[in-house]
Design a protein that fits this description.
The protein is α+β, with helices and mostly antiparallel strands. The radius of gyration is 23 Å and the shape is globular. The chain is built from 17 helices and 18 strands. Helix 1 runs antiparallel to helix 3, helix 9 crosses helix 11 and helix 14 packs antiparallel against helix 16. Bound molecules: flavin-adenine dinucleotide, (2R)-2-hydroxypentanedioic acid (2HG) and zinc ion. Flavin-adenine dinucleotide (FAD) binds next to strand 3, helix 5 and strand 10.
């Protein structure tokens, strides 16, 4: 990058808005897990939409590639630059304003760099709910949530970011601003362009703000930790809960025993809710907008019915919010706990909910044939058909030997996912990690259309190159 461009960028965002010291850039050069790293030419931190537009226009004119970055918590290397030393990281973290709260329209308008938790808090302070919820919510940003179409634990009831968004403001790769910040629930005036930018992982433009839907605040909750004989029981239990608790089912996560064991081993204060070991567990949550909805009773009777039908082996209903939080900590602690067991090979797949049991049976067996003794850490948002099918090395084996098998193991999982009509990425995206293999699993016409759209919107190929689309 030339000194001239650097000077012009400083004029736009102020001297403090451009970082080029390698030490100071380190935090932007690798991801949360240190799984991906690169060498930025500079990190630019605009303070508003006009500044983003000016920065993008300058980079476009100079032919410099840009990597949009939010909280840098993504799990597929999407927000990390390459090693060329020529890509600029465009960090949105200074743009964190809540621009508007329109309670009549039940919407909140926020800037892309706002941390998810702060948006949840702003909604809650007004007595409303912004329901996106995920383990990284204290660091991830709305821009990153949109660019990855984030999911998390509330999807079952409220949907993904695609469902939660009414309008977007986006700086296009030529520096023009698309003013699509509409708060409309109905708008049939042609293609729904916002959906192009949601899930595009920063390859089509820089999202600068969004209009998001709000929901009535949840006034009462009930949670239970449930022991299950196997994954089929999890699918059956969702059916029972839908039948008996209807829309009040707000969370349904499953965890294999292996997953829970890692948390019990590595998370301070974690405690097994049962004396006995069980092969699978579910964390069930009911929620209601009424303060005295009698949810403990609904949950207890639903689980009682499931027990009668042979679906559930054992269950504990949380007797206080603190106990419910401890149950959620067992679930949310898995990702971190697995890091203590050597390399964690992550696969974030989805198959139709009804096919999860057969999928797991076939894939578990195939993985054991490739690496005998492999520890399968399967858990996740089973109500959405989304499993985190993560792998740890056999106890006591070598890290590098296990890493060397990563490609073979991924193939086993993705081939099986494909055989069950699933997706190789349910929520984390393709980024760098799956870009090389997506062509083997996605329809070629679909990929051709995606390339055409990329060419139309970003003809110079400067928006997050080397991500999402196959090379
Ligand atoms: P980043 O990591 O900074 O970026 C992610 C992608 O978005 C990159 O491609 C980047 O270029 C692009 N991007 C970022 N900001 C913008 C912008 N303003 N405009 C255009 N493109 C942009 N994900 C889930 O979906 N569900 C989960 O349950 C979940 N749980 C997690 C738990 C943990 C402990 C961790 C570490 C991660 C988890 N994630 C989960 C993954 C991650 O938190 C999400 O993908 C999140 O949405 C990323 O937000 P971010 O601001 O950190 O984005
Ligand atoms: C979760 O649901 C996240 O906990 C992270 O999506 C999953 O670390 C993972 O693989
Ligand atoms: Zn997840």
């Amino acid at each position: 990058m030339t000194a001239d461009l650097m000077g012009r960028l400083r004029q736009v965002v102020g001297p403090a808005g451009v970082i080029d010291d390698p030490g100071e850039m380190a935090g932007y050069a690798s991801d949360w897990r240190n799984a991906y790293s690169g060498t930025p030419a500079a990190v630019v931190r605009p303070g508003g939409t006009e500044e983003v537009a000016a920065v993008v226009a300058l980079c476009a004119e100079a032919g410099v590639a840009m990597v949009p970055q939010g909280g840098n918590t993504g799990l597929c290397g999407g927000a990390v630059p390459d090693h060329s030393g020529r890509q600029v990281v465009l960090s949105l973290t200074r743009m964190r304003r809540i621009r508007d709260l329109d309670l009549g329209n039940q919407t909140i308008t926020v800037e892309a760099g706002a941390v998810l938790q702060s948006v949840q808090a702003a909604a809650a302070a007004a007595g409303w709910l912004f329901p996106l919820s995920l383990g990284a919510e204290g660091s991830c940003t709305i821009g990153g949530n949109l660019a990855t179409n984030a999911g998390g634990t509330g999807v079952l009831r409220y949907g993904t970011m695609r469902d939660l968004t009414l309008g977007l403001e986006v700086v296009l790769p030529n520096g023009r601003i698309w003013h699509g910040l509409r708060g409309l629930r109905k708008d049939n005036t042609g293609y729904d362009l916002k959906q192009l930018f949601i899930g595009a992982e920063g390859t089509l433009g820089v999202i600068t703000a969004a209009v998001l839907k709000l929901f009535p605040g949840v006034q009462s909750r009930a949670a239970a930790w449930v022991a299950l004989p196997g994954p089929q029981a999890a699918v059956d239990l969702i059916g029972v809960l839908r039948e008996l608790a209807g829309d009040r089912l707000t969370g349904f996560e499953i965890m294999s025993r292996q997953s829970v064991e890692f948390v019990l081993r590595h998370s301070t204060g974690a405690r097994d809710p049962f004396g006995d070991r069980h092969p699978w567990y579910a964390l069930v949550e009911l929620g209601d907008t009424l303060p005295a909805a009698g949810l403990d009773g609904v949950l207890e009777s639903s689980l009682g019915e499931a027990f009668e039908r042979g679906v559930v082996v054992d269950a504990v209903v949380a007797s206080s919010p603190a106990q419910a939080a401890a149950l959620w900590a067992l679930r949310e602690g898995i990702s971190e706990a697995q890091n203590h067991e050597g390399p964690s090979l992550k696969h974030d797949v989805s198959v139709p909910v009804s096919r999860i049991p057969a999928f797991l049976e076939r894939t578990d067996r195939a993985l054991g044939q490739v690496v005998p003794g492999i520890r399968i850490v399967a858990y996740g948002h089973v109500g959405d058909g989304n499993l985190h099918y993560n792998l740890s090395k056999p106890d006591g084996s070598d890290d590098d030997e296990f890493r060397a098998r990563a490609g073979d193991l991924a193939r086993v999982i993705y081939d099986s996912t494909s055989a069950f009509d699933g997706s190789i990425s349910a929520e984390h995206g393709l980024g760098q990690s799956k870009r090389g293999i997506i062509a083997d699993y996605k329809d070629s016409h679909e990929l051709e259309l995606m390339r055409g759209l990329k060419q139309l919107i970003d003809p110079q190929g400067l928006m997050n190159p080397g991500k999402l689309l196959p090379g």
